[in-house]
Structures are given as structure tokens and as C-alpha cells.
Amino acid sequence: MIGQTISHYKILEKLGEGGMGIVYKAQDTKLDRLVALKFLPHHIHASEEERARFLQEARAVAVLNHPAVCTIYDIKEEGDQQFIVMEYVDGMTLHEKILGRGGVPSPIRMNDAISYATQIGEALQEAHSKGIVHRDIKSENIMVNNKNQIKIMDFGLAKLKGSLKLTKASSTVGTIAYMAPEQIQGGDTDGRSDIFSFGVVLFEMLTGKMPFRGEHDAAMMYSILNEEPEALSRYLPDPAPELVHIINRSLEKDPADRYQHVDDMTSELRRLKKSTSRVVRPELTEQSKTQQVMQPSVLPKKSNLKPWIAGGSIVLLAMIVWLLFLNRPAQKITSMAVLPFVNAGSDPSAEYLSDGFTESLINSLSKLPGIKMMSRNSVFRYKEKDIDPQTVGKELNVGAVLMGRIVLNGDALNVSTELVNTSDNSHMWGEQYQRKTSDIITLQNDISRSLSKHLSITLTGDEEKQITKNATENTEAYQLYLKGRFYWNKRTAEGFRKAVELFQSAIDKDPGYALAYTGLADCYNLMTAYFVLPSSEGFAKAKASANKAIALDNALAEPHTNLASIASDYDWNFEVAGREFRRSIELNPNYATAHHWYGEFLAAMGKKEEGLMEIQKAIEIDPLAPVLYVSSAWINFSLGNSSKALADADRALELDPRFPRALTTKAVIYTELGSEADALKYAREAIAASENGIEYRAWLGHVSGRFGKRQDAEKILAELLETAKKEFVSPVLFAYVYAGLSNRDKAFEWLEKVYANHAGDVVYLNIEPAWNPIRTDPRFAALTKRVGLP
User: Fold this and answer.
1) In this predicted model, what pLDDT tens digit does every residue of 483-508 receive, in sequence order?
2) Domain spans of the chain?
3) Looking at the domain 5-87, which fold is it?
4) Per DSSP, what are the bridge partners of residue 317?
5) CATH architecture assigned to 335-470
6) Known catalytic residue at 136
7) Among residues 251, 165, 256, 258, which one has the least CA distance to residue 207?
8) Looking at 32, 74, 112, 136, which residue is catalytic?
9) How many CB atoms neighbour CB 703 within 10 A?
10) Prediction pTM value
């Protein structure tokens, strides 16, 4: 098959072959990337059972999301050939690594072996939490890539919870040398069977040998069923008792005597990994202590020189270790990102819990003094992605990342956390928490408190109260709040409406829940900004909710930002707006939205350079949020810096190539620069990206009018009028199109409606380029004066 192209995959070379498939390296000609293609062997591809098993393998891996599991991209059929498209791993199998270049089995370095084992354990945790038992864990099915990272392969024998049984009751599956006793006997298998195989792999890595021996299959089976495993001490001098315990327990013949969950084995491996990586200061002998303080005036005689050198070397070594390691000050972490906690359970409806818990932790930890905390917008771009902490550290410019996993099983909640130093991917801190869902509120506080202690952050009494303060004691209200945030973050009209229902339900459960009122304020504010509600309705509801939140808890930053926005965009009380923005930033300097909206407000007030500085502060907290670069582009263009504005818009599109507001920004800039083709191109792309959003149709009408395409602009006006019969259409959208057509009378007629409705758009009259065609009309200056703009 080498050289053939199947679908859009060009076969480059054969990688390997086994009973369950033949694997080839291939070039994906569409996406220009290397992939691996796994085909059913020709002699079994007609078997319905084997085809079903093949599909089951794809399904098993497709539900997994873990960096140590080889990713499945697709399953395809070409003619009578069925194949799986999966991640190409550049490296070697663990078996090949144990064999080495000479082909003679030899141990893997202790630190590497424990590191590999920890990664294998974490991958099995992910699989088992999804109800998947691998059933063929062996060194040949585990890859080590060129970054020294583990990738578990070949789920061809995996057993999925609730899937069709594809193996007869009396048959055995797996590879005999790695099989658990119950597999050999054809009994039921579960996660504990994988633990046994995992123990065999760990023994093999450490010794280069197998724990059970046999010259043929029957002898091997007998050994596994009846004999004790080889003693680790036979191959390792003075092995750590913890290591012996881990291997012996994993290789127990009775599943009830093994680890019952791979999480427990992995946790012990992590502790072992930390203990083996610690540097211990050597103890000085009495002789070396004497020599350390002795200061001879002359060198010893030649006959006594060697003992003196030996003793002095011990002292010197101790001093070097002390200077290089023990006396080194701990690295000060001043910036951190909380990556989205993984919903590792089998219940997809619990996604709100992992997302909401992450967001709550970010909000809590953002109040830690001296720590710059990345915002939700930036970190959630890593959701469901293969995450390397060092890469995240470079992209977000942070010193540490906090990662976590949540497993919800009925009323039981299992949360594991790990803090990783992004400079070298080293483990800094980690804990596992097993609680009831009713304890979820205090759990967040426990994590925040433990983390602040580990980072050696000294908190004042008031600071600790703020960080560990429970916004509500009602668990049901808290979970409703988390669900509300989940839907609010969808940023859709339906999402906002669902979020309003959930926040209100949380308030019904706990009328004193300030954060739930803040959620309502956020919903109504954005429903106005996204043209879902008229300004008069949206801002009034947002204001009432924000005021209630502040009455309940004046230390919350978010409702002050809401009140600032309302004071600016609806009340046109710019003094109050400035004061509220500054108060919000004072309460939480890590709140990116406060800096963002304050920057736009300052630009509207004529303080464009100061506004840009605030936008830059927001970008430092939230460097992956495209909307911030759009705001920067908008202000830069108003300052006459079109090249910088275009660069900002391009950066936004790098982060999200289909971000409608960035596309519209480029359309407007090119309109002002007189580039018709570019302006129309980006205006049309914005409509496509927004799925025919009404706001972006209005912008195309504006651009069309500016370049003399009157019929196109008037057609869009007719569409807006027709839509307005069925739903709310902001009057500013009509004004945009009429301004593009240079129809001044109609443009001011609709701007008067904008003014009458107190829509927020009028606050930005002086820096919005859409008004350039009508800016010289005396009515424009009169309008800005009535609003109170400088």
C-alpha cells in the first residue's frame, strides 16, 4: 500500500502489524499533517465481529481526552477497507525502549520509569472513569514520544461499559505475559485487571524482566495463576519499600486484594516520584565535622593526603549541595492560570460543574495579593485540548498552572488538583479531595487556602476572609449558580435567557446570594450589548440586580463594573461611571472586564491614550481574548494609527478566525482607507461567521452605501424593517446604514431614536468611524453636547 492515496491520506510507510490491525504512517493531504492509519487485517476484515470490535476501539478512544492516550481523529471506510485515523506518535514503544539498541532487555532509569508509570496511571484513570477497561496493557501498546511523554495505544480489546459483548464467555483476551489471573481463567474483568497488567509493565521497566516466567504459554499461565512474582530486590539493590509495596499490591492474584482503583496506585506513584526527586543533604561523619572546622596552617604530609582529600571531598560535596540546592530560595510565583478542570466522570451533564468550579476558583484566587491571575476567557481556550503546562506558560506568560479533574458519581465528588511550574513542568503541589456534593462550597475554600499557604502568601485577616468567604451556604443555590454561568458563557440569546432562569432559581433558594444577583446583572447587561433587549429594559434590570448584589456584598468587583457601564452608557453620568470603574479595579485588579470596559469608557471621554493603557492591562490578564484586541484596534484607529489597528484586528483573528467583530472591524477600517474590495470581503465574512447576524448585516449595508452600492444597502434596510416586525432591532443599526448612504436626515432621525432610548451607542459618537459621513453636520455636534460628551 506504500505510495497509495486512500481518501485524502497518502500512505508513506508501514509502522507495524498485530493481530488486531496493520498500522501505516500517512500524510493527511487536506490538513497537511502526519497521521497513523490502522486497517483491519485482510484475512479478518469480512468478519462482522471483528469489524464491530474495530469500531468499538474507535469509540473507546474517541470518548477519552487525555495527553497520554493516542487521539482518534476519525473512522472511515473506503471500498471494503475500514480504517481508523489517529494521532501519529513520533517515538518508540516502551518495549523497544526496554530492549535498547542492542536488543537485550535492560532496566529503564528509575526516575524515568516512575514518571512513565505515573502517566500510564493517569491515562488509565481517564479510561476507567469513562467505563473503559483496556484489557491489553503491555509495553508494546505504550509509546514514548520524542518529548519523553507516554501515549497508550491499541484499545482493540477494550471493554466499554454498556457496549455489546464481543468475546465468548470462555475465551481469553489480551497478551498472556501481562494477563491478570481472572483474564486467563476467562472470568469477568474490570479496572483491577488493567492494574495487574500495569504492575507487570512497571516491573518490566524497572528490571528489564517479567515478574512471571514460562517457556511456553501454558507454563506462563501456570506461573501467573500459582506462583509469586519475582522479588524486585533480585534485580534492584535496596529497592524503596514503597516501590516494592506498589508492585506487590498491583500483582495480587485475587482482584479484591489489589488496588481497587487505579487512582490509588497512581497517587502512591506520585508520592514516590516526589520523594525520589528530592535532594537530601548528606550527613557529615564525626571525622568530616572535625575536618570542616579544622584550619591547618600547613598541608598534611604526603602519606596522609588521600584520607584528607576523601574527608574534604565529603565536606566540599555537602557544601556544593547546600549552595546549589538547599540554600536556593524557592522560586517566587507571581502569575498563575487555573486551567479548565476536566469532567472525568461518565456523566456529561456534570460539565457545568467542572466549568463552574474552575470559574469559581479563578474568582477566589484572583484576590490573592501579589498574584496575577489569568481570566476565564483565556484559560477556557485550553478546554478539551492536549495541554502542556510549559506551552501554556509561554502563551499566557505565567509562572504556574493549576490543573484538576472532577469525577461526579451520584452524591460522591472526587477532585484532584496539581500545581505545575511552567518553567520546567515540575510538580509544585497537589491534593486529592473526596467529598459529598453538599461539601462543594467548602472544598473550593480548602483548595484556595492550601494553595495560598504553599505559595507562601501571607494573608491579612480581611484578605483570608475574602478568599475563603462562602457566597452562599446553600449547595443547591451554588450549583444553580454554576449552571447559570455555564449558559451565560455561551454568549447566545438562548444562553442568556436560560442563565437568567437559573440565576433567579438560585436566588429563590437563597435570597441573600449576592453572586446570583451579579449573574443576573451580567446577563441583562450583555443582552443589551448583543441587541437581545432594548437598552431601556436591559439596563434597568441590570442596574436593579447590580444594586441588590452590592447591598448584599459591597466587596464584589463585578457589580461595580456593571453599575459603571450602566452609569456611562445609559445614565450618561460619567463622573459616577469613572468612580465605579475605579472601585471595581481596586476591589479586584485581576478583573479583566473592568479594565476592558474602563479603557473603552476613557477613550469615549477623549482620554484615548489612557484608554489604551487600560486595554493593555486587560490583555495582560486575558491575552487570548480576541475582543480585547478589537477594542485596541478601535481606539488605535481613532488615534489615526491605521496600521496598528489592522495589526490588532489581525491578532484577534489569529485567536479566532471567525470572530465577527474582528472581521467587521477590518471592514470598517478598510472602508475608511477607501479599499472597497477588502471592506466588502470582510463585511460579508462577518455575516457568514455570525450565521447571518442582524448586527453584521447592518454593517454590510453601511459599507455598501459608502462605496455607492445603493441597491444593496437599501435591500438590507428592507430586511431590517421586516425583522423589526418580529423582534427587537436596535435603532442604531438603521442609523449605521443611512450614514453609509450619506442620507443625513434619515441617519439623524434614527439617531434621535437611539438618544431617546438611551442606547449605549451614543456615548461612543466621537470615536465611532461609522459616523464620519455625517460628522460635519451641525446636528452631530448638538447631539454630542446633549449627551454630555467632552
Assistant:
1) 888 788 777 888 899 999 999 999 99
2) 5-87, 91-131+143-149+172-276, 335-470
3) Phosphorylase Kinase; domain 1 (3.30.200)
4) none
5) 3-Layer(aba) Sandwich (3.40)
6) yes
7) 251
8) 136
9) 29
10) 0.56
